[in-house]
Design brief:
The protein is built from 18 helices and 13 strands. By secondary structure, it is an alpha/beta fold. The chain has 2 domains: 207 residues, Rossmann fold (3-Layer(aba) Sandwich), CATH 3.40.50.2000; 172 residues, 3-Layer(aba) Sandwich (Rossmann fold). The strands form 2 sheets. It has a 7-stranded parallel beta sheet with strand order 3-2-1-4-5-6-7. The protein has a 6-stranded parallel beta sheet with strand order 10-9-8-11-12-13, sandwiched between helices. Helix 1 packs across helix 18 and helix 11 crosses helix 16. The protein is globular and about 60 Å long.
Length: 384
């Protein structure tokens, strides 16, 4: 039996890691997996996982200047999802033809825009895998694009089987997008604790060799608006701790954040190291990992840090409490309470050792347990 996972791009984000882990676990159970990406990539997949790419032509080609213009007009006037909705019929037909040629039995649509762009695939089961809180992910700068985006997304996923990575994502879909059907199942991402601990023992970056173990703070993630690294920098500046701050991640806001660090007079203590293919050695030897997002689906990096016995400080956004449930060593602060965040940073830095315990949490995301639930879905499709 063969399954396909549709994602927008392959990089170091949580969705990519989750799909890689899922493919490997399904493969060990006799299910052949193939990842289909919208953008070609040079990144080598894990052993036993195939990757192919869709051909993006015309206005869907990212290198086409007309694409950017049309998308921008749609984004700020009536909502960015309208652009993808207009292309859904043709792109769904292209994907469906490719899936049939590859003899795929079931497809999982992981990336954000795929839920709309490929919503008209009809000749095989397609599961909509929801990795983030859609009501906030679809929010625009003013009410009309926000409302249109939510309406388009709701209609695209309404009659499709859906998988949410956390209960908070499921509740958001049902309450805010008014998707009231019962076709939503919660299955978390696979967290391969053994592999994480193995990679944590690999060689550190040159920068890390200059840092004292257990004497620096770290944050990992895309440098975009959702992650609110600006909040992190302001809190770190107010905390006035001596430990340096390492920010591992890349994104369109990097230059703006570097300027903010300079304005806050902390640029000599903040290290932007860009995308790191293996951040686990940095995470394992950090004093604490910080997450200051406005919203999340299931913040995998918090789970990974706790598995490596690194304390975490996180804003109480969606998915955080669910991710760290059963763990000791997580400090959760209100999202908009800057003094509380600053106090948590200061308190953690002043403690010589913070107790971390993650065995109960680890059981919730065990690869065997999650893979069996996906395997049950796939077998049910085959039996129909």
């Amino acid at each position: 039996m063969k399954v396909a996972h549709i994602i927008n791009r392959i990089d170091g984000n949580g969705v990519t890691k989750a799909v890689f882990n899922l493919c490997q676990e399904l493969g060990s159970r006799g299910i052949e997996s193939e990842i289909i990406v919208a953008k070609p990539t040079d990144i080598l997949p894990p052993e036993g996982v195939k990757i192919s790419s869709l051909n993006s032509k015309g206005l869907l080609n990212n290198n086409n200047k007309k694409t950017d213009l049309v998308r921008r007009i749609a984004k700020y006037s009536v909502g960015g999802l309208v652009f993808y909705k207009l292309k859904a019929k043709r792109k769904s037909a292209e994907l469906e033809q490719l899936l049939l040629e590859k003899d795929i039995d079931v497809a999982f649509l992981h990336c954000h825009y795929s839920k709309v762009l490929y919503s008209q695939v009809s000749q095989m089961p397609c599961y909509m895998v929801l990795h983030n809180k859609k009501s906030l992910q679809l929010k625009a700068k003013w009410w009309l694009p926000s409302k249109v985006n939510m309406m388009v997304m709701a209609r695209s996923i309404k009659n499709r089987p859906k998988l949410a990575v956390s209960k908070s994502v499921k509740n958001d879909i049902r309450r805010r997008l008014k998707v009231t059907d019962n076709m939503i199942e919660v299955i978390p991402n696979i967290i391969d604790a053994e592999d994480i601990r193995l990679k944590a023992g690999e060689q550190l970056l040159p920068l890390a060799l200059q840092l004292q173990p257990n004497n620096y703070l770290i944050a990992v993630g895309r440098l975009d608006k959702q992650k609110r690294f600006d909040r992190l920098l302001r809190a770190y500046a107010q905390a006035k701790v001596t430990q340096p701050l390492v920010i591992a991640g890349e994104g369109r806001l990097r230059k703006r954040l570097e300027r903010l660090a300079y304005v806050l007079n902390i640029s000599d203590k903040v290290h932007f190291v860009g995308h790191v293919s293996n951040p686990y050695p940095l995470i394992q030897q950090a004093k604490a990992l910080l997450l200051t997002s406005d919203y999340e689906g299931l913040p995998t990096v918090l789970i990974e840090a706790l598995l490596l016995n690194t304390p975490v400080i996180a804003t109480a956004c969606s998915g955080v409490r669910e991710a760290v449930r059963g763990a000791v060593g997580a400090t959760i602060v209100p999202i908009r309470n800057m003094p509380c965040l600053v106090a948590a940073i200061v308190s953690t830095c002043q403690q010589e050792h913070v107790l971390v315990h993650s065995q109960e949490m680890e059981k919730c995301f065990a690869k065997e347990q999650v893979a069996e639930r996906y395997l049950h879905l796939v077998k049910n499709v085959k039996a129909r």
